[in-house]
Every structure is written in structure tokens, then in C-alpha cells.
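Support request, priority: normal
Reporter: lab tech (M.K.)
Component: structure prediction queue

Hi team, I submitted a job for Reticulon-like protein from Porites lobata yesterday, and the status page still shows it as pending. I've pasted the exact input below so you can check whether something in the sequence is tripping the parser. The sequence length should be 206 residues. Please let me know if I need to resubmit or if it's stuck on your end.
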Amino acid sequence: MDVKDILLWRDVKVSAVVFVSGFVLLVCLTQFSVVSVITNTALICLAPMLALRLLLTARSAFLKSEFEHPLKVYLSKDIEVSKDKADLVGEKVAEIAVCLTSKLKRLFLVEDLSESLKLLIVLYILSYVAQWFSGITLTFIAFVGAFTVPKVYDIYHGEIDSCIAKINQAIEDMTGKITSKVPMVKGKEIPTPDDQNSEDNDKKTS
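Reply from support: The job had stalled in the queue. We restarted it manually and it finished. Here are the results:
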């Protein structure tokens, strides 16, 4: 099961476990520091395993039997990543990084005026959102939205696509009106020496 299946609640039990675990973790982060949450979570995970190990060790010593680790099956499994898979992941990450950098370069150097204006509007809205919400609150909202928005879109994708198309059309019309009012200066072409000589010959001929 991949991330998409979890976010779309393909398996309700798995998605519920992931959602509740993440929700509780974020609630803890709003009340306590990150270090406290990490250390206490590690203690909660370690304490039962340590108690189980000590109990089974004492039981084996009392019965004078050979001790066998109850989680031997999981300990025997090797955690490894194949070189091909690592190379594939590295290529994907590099491709995304290059694409993102190129996109940001075009936006911030204003290659397309309408696209840069859209970015300006989005950044302006985000600057106000940042004043209203803290980083952990935005993370909280993003986490809950990740488990609700994709599912809602999966059910009502037709109606949502229609609304998004209308919004995009309105934005295109607005940016089109703005760009039409911005004077576009065309740069003059610098004449080359050959063009200058040809122009002088034409003058002499005339």
C-alpha cells in the first residue's frame, strides 16, 4: 500500500491508524517541545520491549530452558536498499530539484509577466496567513487536509474541476487585463558592422 492509497482511505483500518497517530503527534507538538515528544515516544516504544525481554529472560532462567527472542523473525530481516533503487530515487530527487529551480528562476526573473504576477498574489496572501497561524498550526491544517481533500476530490472531482476551471479563467482574465495595461518596451536592435556598411553604401548610391 502506497501513500496515495492511505490518503484516499482505500484501507480504512490502515488509514485510520496513520491518521490517529499523526493527529496525536501533532497535538503533542502543540503542547510540548519537539525534543520532549521524541524522547517520550521513544520511551513508550522501548519500555514494553525491554519489559518483555526481561520477563522472558527470567522465565527461561527459571525453567532452565534455552532463551529464544520473541521478535527473532523481525531481527533476522535485513534492512537494505538496492543500488538500482537508490540511483532511481536520486535521479527522481535531482530531476525534481532541477525542475523546481528552473521554475523559480523563471518566476523571480519575470520571464512571463502573468505567471510572476500570480506568484506575487500568492505570496501576498501567504504573508497574511503567516501572521494569523503559527508553523505548527499550518502543519496541523495541512495534515488534516491531506486526509480529507484528496478523498473529497476523489468523490466530487467533476464538480471541483468545473469550479477550478472557472477560477483559472477569472485569474487569466484579470492578469490579462493587468499585463495589457503594462507598457512593453521593445529594445532596439544594435546594428552590426555589415549592416552599417550596407546602409552607408545605400546612401552613397542614392
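The radius of gyration is 31 Å. Confidence is low (pLDDT under 50) at residues 185-190. Let us know if anything else looks off. Ticket resolved.
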